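Q: I'm writing up a methods section and want to include an example of the input and output format. Could you take the sequence below and give the corresponding predicted structure tokens, formatted cleanly so I can copy it straight into the document?
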Amino acid sequence: MKALIALEDGRTFAGTGFGADGVQTGELVFNTSMTGYQEILTDPSYHKQIVTLTVPHVGNTGINPQDVESDKVWVAGFVVRSLSPVVSNWRSQRDLDGYLREHGVIGISDVATRALVRHIREKGVMRAAIAHGEAAEDAAALVNIARQSPDMSGWNLVDDVTCAEPYNWTQTSDPGWYVNHPYDPNGALIVAYDTGIKKNILRMMTDRGLRVTVVPATTPADQVLAIHPAGVFLSNGPGDPAAVTSMIDNTRSLLGKVPIFGICLGHQILALALGGKTEKMRFGHRGGNQPVKNLLTGVIEISSHNHGFAVTPDSDLGGAEVTHINLNDNTIEGLRHEGLGAFSVQYHPEAAPGPHDSLYLFDEFVNRVKGTVSV
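A: Here is the clean output for your methods example:
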């Protein structure tokens, strides 16, 4: 069936629909990862975004239950150049088309993704509507729908993705993928704020002997401190970080009282809690091949990214130092404040999908929690 993507600036891209029928809106973005579409689909950080993959051939490895990063598909739409008609992988249990249909997500293939990505790179990410079926026949109506949809700036999406109740995480990684250890019921207790947390982040912590209690993003700091955690983790998540005011306030209340580690949105929340500012990027960083320089060691890490906001370079970070920068555009990729026992990175060291260059950051968190690095 016919499918169409309509952008708020009036540009349209036609293709063939798969997955669910109907109309959905979201911010149109692109991801340059060569593999890992299943992890991308289930990453809560993509809530309210229509994701375009630059890799041309998608769907050939199917869908399995091991590689999901949450319990649902979060993307608002999925755009590919070519949808594989054949699934061939020893772990696959179903195809991509049926998976998206089950989760009510529209897919579109046979799209000129090179032209689409170039358009976004030149004009910036923008609101869009994606349609599959009868709604794809009226391009003008779809453009109007895109223009009337919410803008990502100022939008707090964390409330949509956070857990409803606290829970304990005990799962470790598959030993076929990582060197790990059995779950340690006596390990140091970590509280992880769920602002859209990915499962592999949690596995990276339990692999290293930590006990993890995940709490909703609205949990007050005094309730967290009342259970005497050895450390606090600030997770990834969707939307505008400056709009998540409760998390900023909670983080500010926790600073200096317990070691803190933040990833992605958690990095931005930490910067805002320290007194810094964030800004929306032109088209963001999304992919598994971003070069980041560790300013403390001089080492270049190839890293996985998924973010559309960044810490502004002229931010007053309250004495924190910049530890990592992106070599493509010099944006801030890492912070630490030794006096307050906090550090963070903008990228995704859990590598799902992506390279493993940055796994050492979880070891650093363990060392801080155990006191081998002073708070």
